[in-house]
Amino acid sequence: MLEVDLRPGRIAAAALAVLGPASAFAHHAVPQTFDMEMLTELSGSISRVELVNPHVVIELTTTDESGADAIWVVEMGAPNALIRRGFDPRELLVTGRRVTIEAWPAKDGTNSASANRLVTADGTAFNVVDGFGLSAVRIQAGNASIRSQEPGDPVR
After folding, report:
1. Model confidence pLDDT, tens digit, residues 109-125
2. What are the two backbone dihedrals, phi and then psi, of residue 104, each rounded to the nearest 5 degrees?
3. Would you state the pLDDT for residue 114?
4. Contact 113, 41 (CB under 8 A)
C-alpha cells in the first residue's frame, strides 16, 4: 500500500513544485512584450484597479485622436515594490482619479502598456516601473534615451 505524507508543510512543498513553474512562466519579460524604444504618454481617468501580483494593473480611460474614449490596460510593478518606493497603490490608484502615465506600449498594437512613471494631477511623479523587467530593459536597450528608474532614483 502506498503511504502519502499529508503534513501541511509537505502539501505546500508539493503544490509549489507543481504550480511554481507555471506562475513563473506566466510572468512575461517586459522587453519581449512592450516596445522599449518608444515611451508614450497616456492621460486620463482610472476606471479599474487590480492590486495583484506580479503587477498592479489599471484600466485608464483616455481620449483617442477621434475624440472617442479609449481604454488602456497599464501594468506597473508589484504592490509591495511600489509601496517600498513610496507609492501606495491603495491610496493613490483611486477610480476616477486623473493621472498621466509615461509607458512603453505593447508591441502587438493593443491598448496595453508597461508604466515607467505616473504623475498625479498635482504634479507629483512616482516611479512605478516593473522592476522585474527593468534589468532586461537596460541590458537589451543599451540606450540612454530610455528613461527608466531604479528604486530609490530621484524622479526625473
Report:
1. 999 999 999 999 999 99
2. -95, 120
3. 94
4. no
Instruction: State if pTM tops 0.90.
Output: no
Cα angle 128, 93, 98 (rounded to 5 degrees) comes to 100
Nearest alpha carbon to residue 96 among 43, 44, 42: 44
**Whether the Cβ atoms of residue 21 and residue 121 lie closer than 8 Å to each other:** no
For Cα atoms 50, 55, 60, give the angle at the middle one, nearest 5 degrees. Answer: 50
Cα three-residue angle 112-114-119, rounded to 5 degrees: 105
List of long-range contacts for 109-112, beta carbons under 8 Å, 24+ apart: 110/73, 111/70, 111/71, 111/72, 111/73, 112/72, 112/73, 112/74, 112/75
Residue 137: closest CA among 123, 150, 152, 124: 150
Q: Which domains does the chain have, with CATH numbers?
A: 30-141 (2.40.50.140)
Compute CA distances 131 → 13, 85, 114, whole Å: 27, 11, 11
38-86 pLDDT, tens digit each: 999 999 999 999 999 888 999 999 999 999 999 999 999 999 989 988 8
